[in-house]
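Input for the complex:
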Amino acid sequence: MALLEIRGVSKTFRTLRALDGVDVEVEAGSFHGLIGPNGSGKSTLLKAIAGAHFADSGTIVFDGRDITRATPYERARAGLSLKFQITAVLPELSVYDNVLLATQSNGRLPSLLMSASRRTLDDEVEALLERFRLIDRADDLAGELSHGQQQWLEIAMALALRPKLLLLDEPTGGMSPEERHVTGKLIEPIKPDCTLIIVEHDLHFIRDICDRLTVLDQGKVLDQGDVETIQRSPKVQQVFTTRV
Amino acid sequence: MLSATETDVAASRERGAARPPMFRAMLPYVELGALVAALVVPFALAERTDLVTLATNVLILSLLAISFDLCWGLSGIMSFGQALFFGVAGYAIALVGRDLEFSEIWATLPLAMLVGLLLAGLFASFLLLGRKPPTSIFVALGTLTGSYAAERLVSGWQYVGAGNGLSSVKLLKLGSYEFVEGTAFYFLALVVLVAVYLGARFLKSSQLGLVLAGMRQNEERLAFFGYRVQLFKALVFSLAGMVAGLGGALYSYHQGFIGPGNMGPGLSTTAVLYCLLGGSGTLIGPILGTATVEVLSYVLSDVDAIKPIWPVILGIVLLAVVMFQPKGILGLVVSDRERIGSYGRRGQRR
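Predicted:
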């Protein structure tokens, strides 16, 4: 059974039809890439899944539950986690506190007030910082990190929620080739525990990391399948040679 | 999923532990200085009962300032109506004294807190608990309107004294002891303020305080972490209402009077000034701001040469501070880093 089922999802901004009857299924444990030309609706679809936008029509079922009208809070609690396209770290908090804030989000109010989980979460926070090469910047303000490090911090924060489904919107945007390579290495190990949907312009990066791809064009699904199939698809080749 | 080894974490801790502190902590010194000054004041001013009364007023109004700081400084809720909870609680205990002949401290102060808490909770349910997050402007105008409407309402309501307010409020009692204006009331107000301050400080430095700090910076991001941001806001707003209600009750007992102006936009915006002048988000800053504004008002209004224009001078001073020192008086000695706080275990934590 698919972890995520998107059926006939449409979204219009004023006169622009950003999504037009999109159907996508994402299997549990897979790394699923969303690709397409600029303006094809990739980020809009990701935001509709995460709850940043509500779909005008269609349904989104996650882990057997209809979340089409659920708030971002409810979706996060259900196991969805989003890394924004534009980094949204909390710049006035330390790198450590950014991750702690994400890690402790399952805590109940009395527990947060009594700081009951502060010590027990410490190892988890430090492990994430270590893994994302941020441990030496733990006490620095998040706003002082380089762009690439902020992207890594965002991914670490998204993973700190222990999500069933991780949504990454352009995780390598603005990164150097070396940073992109490292990012791929940082993301790969999550596979046994977490399903991934990733929007990315770097097709090499997508090809290396994903099992399946969905190609969007002008708000519609152009094609979907495994990486080999999509690479051979004439429809996809036409769009990418003429419009990208 | 989180596969870093224990060795890695231990090594990283060693690296973190070797680092120097990220900022020099100044707030504890400011807090200690303020407490010492507060303990000395009634003895230093023993000959001047008018000044002890002024100092008591500063302590009581500081509760209103902390109430606003909980909303704005800690949580990013722009409330222009904190005096509403202050005034309504003040009226409530004045009416209990007048109509029930009752003013025992063990019941009336908790009653005032409950009135503030419930009224603020009611406002929060309208202003903050919608399905979509409200804008700051909506909350600011909503609280301002509530404060204004309440002032107009009591101004025309004979049962609560209409425009004259309620005077001759019954004295606050503990058994047969009556708290009259003077040193005893001063120390009562000081004990209450210290207790509220410690509670607010505990909240700020807790993991819940980290949620509030995050909420103030980017509440949308926190919703995507799975936090019910609106619920946290409603909770802090209600707690702030409770603190304001406590202040209103003490004010009513201390002055022996409560009037429409004590719940209107005038006092609500004065609370904003206390906070901005002292330094929002620090808790101690708003207390220093309250002392500065009240002492300046007292001194300026007593100088013959400037008596007719002292409010203008005070206004210019406040305007200059807000324009040229937006982080308030405390911003001169307390770094942003310390003001916002640090919550983990590495480096220097509070």
